[in-house]
What we know:
Shape: globular
Strand content: 15-25%
Order of helices and strands: EHEHHEEEHEHHEH
Distance between the termini: 13 Å
CATH superfamily: P-loop containing nucleotide triphosphate hydrolases
Strand order of the largest sheet: 2-3-1-6-7
Mean pLDDT: 88
Radius of gyration: 16 Å
Largest sheet: 5 strands, parallel
CATH architecture: 3-Layer(aba) Sandwich
CATH topology: Rossmann fold
Low-confidence stretches: none
Helix content: 40-55%
Number of domains: 1
Structural class: alpha/beta
Amino acid sequence: MKKLLRTVVVTGIPGVGKSTVLGELQNLAKEKEANLVTVNYGTVMNELFQNLGKSIHRDKMRRQGLESQRKIQEQAAEIIAGKARDGILVVDTHSFVRTSSGFWPGLPYNVLAKLKPSLFVLVEASTDEIAMRRQKDKTRMRDEGSLEEVKFDLTWSRATVSSCAVLAAAPAIIIKNETGKQRQAAERLWNAISNL
């Protein structure tokens, strides 16, 4: 495969199975001997908070003050952008986060300007599947939310990702992740990356 120098931003609301799809994408990249690195935005932010002496669970970062989140978010963007060298950089993140002050953008303009994404990918699943996955996942501290909240979050994520695509002048796609079909979802994602 030809060398690609691309930054792909993959988003999805909690419970869509984004991490599972990205695990399959890593497997595909290994099979194709492609240079693909996945970086989780929240993990980088959490490490930066820890460097400041704030040991907090990654699912509780959204409860930090907005100014603190803004600074850490921008620093994380600089670190992640520095990893885009040779090959494909996949940034695993959220397009928005619910906070006590409202919806916090996961990809504000200053972050987009640093990341320079080539493609936005929104991973989705049905509301029932998302609710079931959230209930089963005991490793995370997620808001369960009603089916109505899940539907709202899916709609809001589409609006947010489309706005990001316009601001970054990059294409956006939606990939459905049906239960048991994460390999197919990863293949669709791989094809989208390969066609850049």
